[in-house]
Amino acid sequence: MPGWSEPPLKLRIRRLIPIMLPIGLILALLGWSFLVRQPQINRVRISYSPLVALNDDINQLNIECSDQRAGELVIEAGEASRMILPSIEAAPEYLQDLRKTVNRYGWLATFKSYEPVSGPTDEETPITFVPAAGKMIPTRENRKPFPSLLELLTHFTASANRIDLTRLAIGVDEKTGPTVEMNFQIASHRTDEKTAQ
User: Fold this and answer.
1) Are 163 and 184 in contact (CB under 8 A)?
2) How far is Cα 182 from Cα 112, in angstroms, rounded to an integer?
3) Which CATH superfamily is domain 88-196 in?
4) Distance CA 138, CA 102 (A)
5) Given strand 107-113, what is the order of strands in its sheet?
6) How far apart are alpha carbons 154 and 109 in whole angstroms?
7) How far apart are the C-alpha atoms of 95 and 117, rounded to whole Å?
8) Are 112 and 132 in contact (CB under 8 A)?
9) pLDDT per position in the chain (197 positions), as tens?
10) Secondary structure of residue 168 in the 3-state scheme
11) How far is CA 30 from CA 25, 44, 88, in A?
């Protein structure tokens, strides 16, 4: 102001200290946060990102599949596994048992299995289908061959092991009566080295 003398420099500096000190501290804290602390946080975040992603996946699975549904799926998988032959080598024995079952329905049968035909991607799957062929004629005691055949085919579809009927031919012979020829596939686990491991 006119007529007032300028205060000395030391006095002006002393008056600025209460203002400049907090500003300096704030700037120092901001510099430490952006230059030191934030890079540390980013490094920790990057190191834990796989765990965070895994946790997100687990939470997503928990949302999509409840514990009850997971238990049901385990039971269904066990039932499906029991419908499949333990190995390709078990097919002849299974066909012998199937022949006895067919006989109980009043039919005589001969069955033969063949080596599965491998496709380009078959080695990647643990399940294969064993092709088989059979021929059946009714026994002398079977007075109702066609109703018993229907019962037998129903048994095939409800079998404990999965059987896919691919061909069914029914003919009538003057001497033996009805004859049935069929081709089918039996689901089986693979027995190659990859599956064994």
Assistant:
1) yes
2) 11
3) Ribosomal protein S6/Translation elongation factor EF1B (3.30.70.60)
4) 10
5) 107-113, 127-138, 177-189, 163-173
6) 17
7) 19
8) yes
9) 555 567 677 777 777 777 877 888 888 888 888 888 888 888 888 887 888 888 888 777 766 666 777 777 777 777 767 778 888 888 899 899 989 989 999 999 999 998 887 655 555 677 888 899 999 999 989 888 889 989 888 887 776 667 788 898 998 877 767 899 999 888 888 764 344 44
10) strand
11) 9, 20, 72
HSE, side-chain direction, 13 A CA sphere, residue 106: 15
CB 184 within 8 Å of CB 134: yes
pTM exceeds 0.70: no
The answer to whether 177 and 136 have CB atoms below 8 angstroms apart is no
In the chain, where the domains are located: 1-64, 88-196
